[in-house]
């Protein structure tokens, strides 16, 4: 069963899948009819991937995994709200997932919109404003650290959202303390297809 994996082994499995994808050698595992049938009654994902909604960031494809392998939660700019926290707590408490991945990417539209709002002082309308408000601390930190590029801000946002998960959820922080799960931050490069490790909380 996949949930027997340690956080370190789960990360290795994702890393190896991403390497296959980068090299054009994807094996497309667990995507056939028998796999589909085996999952009707139960699921045992080995990781939860909380990533940006960007259409170029399809988790199962870039990590070369299939049905039942990863539990996926996505919002623009990987912004955290109560529904996200509930979904991630479910993956840890009920499914026993040993690894939480926070996945950002270069040229992120949500982060770019936030940088523009910070620079101009003009907030977007509607609920896009909510996204921008939640990403603003990352943009301000990046600017304070003399890192004005959007991709620097993306990395900072991944780090801050990862830390916020551990700080906001007792379920997740307890699982980290007990070594049952870890949180890693990854920044994905659209051109190369590679997901780089940028932060880690817990034992890997």
Task: Please give a structural write-up.
With 204 residues, the protein is an alpha/beta fold. It has a single domain, classed as Beta-carbonic Anhydrase, Chain A, CATH 3.40.1050.10. The protein is built from 8 helices and 5 strands. Strands 2-1-3-4-5 form a 5-stranded mixed beta sheet, sandwiched between helices. Helix 6 (128-144) crosses helix 7. It catalyses: hydrogencarbonate + H(+) = CO2 + H2O.
Q: What's the gist of this structure?
A:
This protein is an alpha/beta fold and 204 residues long. It has helices at residues 7-22, 33-38, 59-62, 82-93, 109-120, 128-144, 150-168, 170-177, and strands spanning 47-52, 70-75, 99-105, 182-189, 194-201. It is globular, with a radius of gyration of 17 Å.
Layout: helices, strands, pairs:
Elements: H1 7-22, H2 33-38, E1 47-52, H3 59-62, E2 70-75, H4 82-93, E3 99-105, H5 109-120, H6 128-144, H7 150-168, H8 170-177, E4 182-189, E5 194-201
Parallel strand pairs: 1-2, 1-3, 3-4
Antiparallel strand pairs: 4-5
């Amino acid at each position: 069963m996949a949930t027997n994996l340690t956080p370190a082994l789960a990360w290795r499995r994702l890393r190896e899948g991403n390497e296959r994808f980068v090299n054009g050698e994807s094996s497309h595992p667990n995507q056939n009819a028998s796999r589909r049938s085996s999952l009707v009654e139960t699921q045992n994902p080995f990781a939860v991937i909380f990533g940006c909604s960007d259409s170029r960031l399809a988790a199962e494809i870039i990590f070369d995994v299939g049905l039942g392998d990863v539990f996926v939660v996505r919002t623009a700019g990987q912004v955290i709200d109560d529904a996200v926290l509930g979904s991630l707590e479910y993956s840890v408490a009920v499914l026993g997932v040993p690894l939480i991945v926070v996945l950002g990417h270069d040229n992120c539209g949500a982060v770019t919109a936030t940088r523009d709002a910070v620079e101009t002082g003009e907030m977007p309308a509607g609920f896009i404003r909510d996204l921008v408000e939640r990403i603003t601390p990352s943009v301000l930190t990046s600017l304070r650290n003399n890192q004005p590029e959007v991709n620097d801000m993306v990395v900072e946002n991944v780090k801050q959202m990862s830390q916020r998960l551990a700080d906001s959820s007792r379920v997740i922080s307890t699982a980290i303390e007990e070594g049952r799960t870890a949180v890693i931050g990854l920044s994905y490069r659209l051109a190369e297809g590679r997901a780089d490790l940028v932060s880690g909380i817990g034992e890997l």
